[in-house]
């Protein structure tokens, strides 16, 4: 697992390597966006972006950092956050990538809307808890921290479930089932695969989809190059083409069930494709 891929699932409060069970981690949307931008920009655009940041980021780091590393550095320095991606949108506009500027602003608004929804949810405090750190992995350290807060009278949550409503947290808890237990896996039905299924699956796929395609879905490097040439600015369509190629080669046996089984064998997180199993409790 590369450092860039691990960073997409982590913050400075947790290690940059996956725990034993990577399916218990949920990708952070704005960090997924960093990876997608890095994959899409051409070399001239990367050089232009670094030139715009000269003086704001040390020259040594600009020279060795990738685009994704630069964005993560800006986040660590407090220059951007999950709810403040405008500096990146401005950079994208300056290097004449208005398509990415639009996507960045859309992601920022979606994150803000999610935070507003969490803050106004019944039974949740509308104020962030000062000094609270968000941890993503289970373990005795997490329980000790929570127990200490309860004893001190500073916790507003019960021991039954960790708090996840902090407005400053960039964790995407959409894959959580409300407790510390992993979601129950359900077998997908043996139904035909539609274009709508593949479009939603493509949006959910995290960084590393190319490796999944090469190792588990019969794709070749030449295939990936061809899809990137066909859809140079659309990562989702490149992924859709990958799954369509596998579906065409597999024929009638390509169903939702076989697709999910292959994703599971490829160690893709269950929450990425769990929607394909909905309505089937087998």
From TrEMBL:
One Pfam family matching this protein = DED
> Residue ranges of the DED domain?
29-106
InterPro entries, per the entry = DEATH-like_dom_sf (IPR011029), Death_dom (IPR000488), DED_dom (IPR001875), FADD (IPR016729)
Q: Which domain of life is it from?
A: Eukaryota
Q: Give the Low complexity compositional bias ranges.
A: 152-166
The family database entries (PROSITE patterns) matched by this protein are listed as:
DEATH_DOMAIN, DED
UniProt cross-references to CDD domains, sorted A to Z = DED
| Stretch list, region Disordered | 1-23, 107-191
Where is the Death domain positioned along the sequence? 223-267
A GO BP annotation: signal transduction
Compositional bias segments (type: Basic and acidic residues): 135-149
Q: What is this protein called?
A: Hypp3242 protein
The protein's gene is named: Hypp3242
